[in-house]
């Protein structure tokens, strides 16, 4: 047990660029059960393909024994086929995509468009989806961070400083994963909700004066990784720019869009999620399984579930300000490995080669990022101050803080 914990902390401490690349690489490849394993391009190619094959020889030579509704890798095939039998007319999009009420047309639709059934046309079953586009230009990445002048100061400076190490990291990774560049290019939307001016937190502005940086570090490294891994990345820190981007992917019907355009994953934080749930409910419900939450401290099961929390609130605390979103626990990306239920998403720790011996001094660092957190702390600080100097950063204090020497 102790060993396991220790290992986790070591993992936390030793995050080099290549480790973070690997974590994010695996994260993007790791689909939750409900998630459609398609990329925008892949679907679009398949739809064109299907339309051109709508009077395909497949259905004219159709023989029910050819259809495998019980393939072990496609557990939803039979139930979906049964649903289509009675419901294919509930929305016009099914017939626009070639369904005409026949078994065969439903099967072709479910196999080619929704991937719930095994491939109908064996020779075309593996249409390669559009591949990632490599980019190693810092300028291109910085251009993506453009919907605010103040929000990204810290993130940009971290990205710029670490960029050469990221390039070194990706070179290392591609040596160990040869087909690294042969994967679908995902459409990713990143919404840094905690920076939005509507939250009133001014995290962006405070980043140079002692404001909280943990979230910024985690975001900066995620942004760099998904960009260098070659995905189609769109980044917003303000609500309006997020909304415009999300609207582009709005889908009115239950089928994939005819142009094949779809968002693959949405990265946001709890504040971003709350706003999305309030202001774009449909977008949230139709993409619920595609959300990935940057959640530095993580979310435990008992806080995630509303019913459980209500039933036990007297034992575990009165309010559930950050929880209750009822996502799959692995959708929460934490940088503190408190629980294995969440997904680990750390950040790069910079290491330096020291050649001189560093003389240690007695210094106490106090973590108290805002003034209110220091309330009633004086007696304790007094004790520490009798032995050491005390250092701290406080984001919102305009007064001179008491000097403890
Ligand atoms: C369907 O295909 C199977 C196997 O190829 C064959 O035995 C059967 O006679 C066919 N049925 C019809 C109705 O063509
Ligand atoms: C890439 O993302 C942008 C912004 O979300 C979107 O407008 C564009 O259509 C995407 N490209 C593809 C090929 O889907
Ligand atoms: C730090 O403080 C402790 C306790 O007062 C003392 O024993 C130690 O010598 C100090 N170390 C230095 C480097 O000042
Ligand atoms: C700090 O040290 C002084 C004397 O060196 C002592 O009088 C005082 O009680 C100490 N304060 C605390 C809080 O330990």
From TrEMBL:
Enzyme class: transferase
Single GO biological process annotation from the record: protein N-linked glycosylation
GO molecular function list: alpha-1,6-mannosylglycoprotein 6-beta-N-acetylglucosaminyltransferase activity
Keywords for the protein's UniProt record, in alphabetical order: Glycoprotein, Glycosyltransferase, Golgi apparatus, Membrane, Signal-anchor, Transferase, Transmembrane, Transmembrane helix
Catalytic activity from the UniProt record: N(4)-{beta-D-GlcNAc-(1->2)-[beta-D-GlcNAc-(1->4)]-alpha-D-Man-(1->3)-[beta-D-GlcNAc-(1->2)-alpha-D-Man-(1->6)]-beta-D-Man-(1->4)-beta-D-GlcNAc-(1->4)-beta-D-GlcNAc}-L-asparaginyl-[protein] + UDP-N-acetyl-alpha-D-glucosamine = N(4)-{beta-D-GlcNAc-(1->2)-[beta-D-GlcNAc-(1->4)]-alpha-D-Man-(1->3)-[beta-D-GlcNAc-(1->2)-[beta-D-GlcNAc-(1->6)]-alpha-D-Man-(1->6)]-beta-D-Man-(1->4)-beta-D-GlcNAc-(1->4)-beta-D-GlcNAc}-L-asparaginyl-[protein] + UDP + H(+)
Claim: Heme is one of the keywords in the record: no
Protein name: alpha-1,6-mannosyl-glycoprotein 6-beta-N-acetylglucosaminyltransferase
Gene Ontology cellular component list: Golgi membrane
Family in the record: Belongs to the glycosyltransferase 18 family.
Highest taxon above the source species: Eukaryota
Organism: Acrobeloides nanus
């Amino acid at each position: 047990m102790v060993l396991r914990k220790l290992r986790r902390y070591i993992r936390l401490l030793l995050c080099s660029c290549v480790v973070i690349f690997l974590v994010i690489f695996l994260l993007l490849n790791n689909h939750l059960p409900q998630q459609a394993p398609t990329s925008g391009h892949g679907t679009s190619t398949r739809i064109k393909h299907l339309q051109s094959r709508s009077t395909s020889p497949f259905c004219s030579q159709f023989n029910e024994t050819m259809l495998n509704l019980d393939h072990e890798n496609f557990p939803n095939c039979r139930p979906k086929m049964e649903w289509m039998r009675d419901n294919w007319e509930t929305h016009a999009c099914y017939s626009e995509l070639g369904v005409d009420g026949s078994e065969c047309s439903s099967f072709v639709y479910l196999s080619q468009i929704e991937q719930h059934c095994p491939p109908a046309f064996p020779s075309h079953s593996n249409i390669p989806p559009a591949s990632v586009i490599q980019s190693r230009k810092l300028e291109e990445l910085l251009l993506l961070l453009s919907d605010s002048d103040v929000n990204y100061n810290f993130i940009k400076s971290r990205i710029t400083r670490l960029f050469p190490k990221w390039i070194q990291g990706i070179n290392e990774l591609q040596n160990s994963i040869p087909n690294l560049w042969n994967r679908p290019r995902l459409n990713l939307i990143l919404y840094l909700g905690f920076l939005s001016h509507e939250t009133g937190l001014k995290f962006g502005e405070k980043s140079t004066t002692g404001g909280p940086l943990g979230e910024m570090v985690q975001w900066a490294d995620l942004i760099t990784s998904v960009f260098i891994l070659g995905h189609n990345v769109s980044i917003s820190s303000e609500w309006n720019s997020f909304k415009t981007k999300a609207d582009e992917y709005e889908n009115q019907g239950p089928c994939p869009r005819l142009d094949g355009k779809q968002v693959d994953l949405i990265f946001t934080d709890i504040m971003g999620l709350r706003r999305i749930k309030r202001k774009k409910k449909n977008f949230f419900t139709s993409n619920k399984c595609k959300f990935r939450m940057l959640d530095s401290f993580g979310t435990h099961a008992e806080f995630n579930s509303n019913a459980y929390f209500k039933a036990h609130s007297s034992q575990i605390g009165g309010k559930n300000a950050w929880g209750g979103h009822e996502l799959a626990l692995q959708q929460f990306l934490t940088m503190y490995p408190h629980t294995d239920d969440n997904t680990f998403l750390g950040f790069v720790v910079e290491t330096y080669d020291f050649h001189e011996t560093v003389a240690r001094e007695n210094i106490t660092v106090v973590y108290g990022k805002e003034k209110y957190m220091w309330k009633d702390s004086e007696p304790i600080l007094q004790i520490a101050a009798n032995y050491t100097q005390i250092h701290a950063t406080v984001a919102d204090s305009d007064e001179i803080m008491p000097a403890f020497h």
